[in-house]
UniProtKB/TrEMBL annotation:
InterPro entries: Homeodomain-like_sf, HTH_RpiR, RpiR-like, RpiR-like_SIS, SIS_dom, SIS_dom_sf, WH-like_DNA-bd_sf. This is Helix-turn-helix domain, rpiR family protein. The keyword DNA-binding applies. The lineage of its organism: Bacteria, Bacillati, Actinomycetota, Actinomycetes, Mycobacteriales. It comes from Rhodococcus opacus M213. Residues 4-80 form the HTH rpiR-type domain. GO terms for biological process: carbohydrate derivative metabolic process.
Amino acid sequence: METLESWLRARAEAQPIGPKARRLLDLMVSVPKFAAYASAAQIGKRAGVDASTVVRMAHTLGFDGWPDLQSEIRSRYLSSLSASQLLETHDDTASDPIVRALRSDADIAAQTANSMDVAAIRKIAAALLESRRIVVLASGSFAGPATQLVHVATRLGLDIHLADRGGRTLVTSLAALDAGDAVLIINLWRLPAEVLAAATWAKTNGVRVATITDSLHGPLAKASDHVVTIPTEGTSHFPSLVPAMSLVHALLAEFTHVLGEGGRKAIERNDATYREMERLRKEVSS
């Protein structure tokens, strides 16, 4: 991903901005941590302009307002930090780490519920359900939400597979897809080159690309047909999985609703298979 400075300056060059907006831009570049968390009034005061100038600059750069622009700035700022730098950023020896983590996850869950683009989630669900075969690409911590999605969606009867390893294993997973199939990518914080390559290959070959990420304006979003962004900031050196898990639950709920009787029958077949396997296991072990 390009640096925050190069990204901001490139967007500013595409639109004429005045001296006040230029001061704001220079401030955001020089103190990105402050820009990632300050209110419009706070950042305006530090740059010597009023809050309305901050909002107008956000509009000029193509955003709905300061919160929208700040979300992108925060995502890019956090993505630029190493795990040790993240730990330093969130270091707070004055509070209980367990309580802080629990409260942070509760807050981010509420933020996710209040800001989520329901229509965008429904479009991703529809694109996946229309596909013959689905590959879910995720790695690291975010292979966790992907694992639950694949497990439960398989129980609903979908032909869906987890790709949580790269290299030739990922190539083999992608090669099994045809035009009209789908790749769902869950990628946040940092963008591995292999993930972007997979999205580019899929889109070039007519495979639907749906992405869950933390940046609406990054290269992965540009390589995708459908995008939903979620917050990921935790309280330590690792991201919070709460928003990703919430989104997975939302997708599964939508799958279940849309599939209706077909999904119910698939669940019943799964339950019957489980009961039969348990019976056979007991016979073998007796």
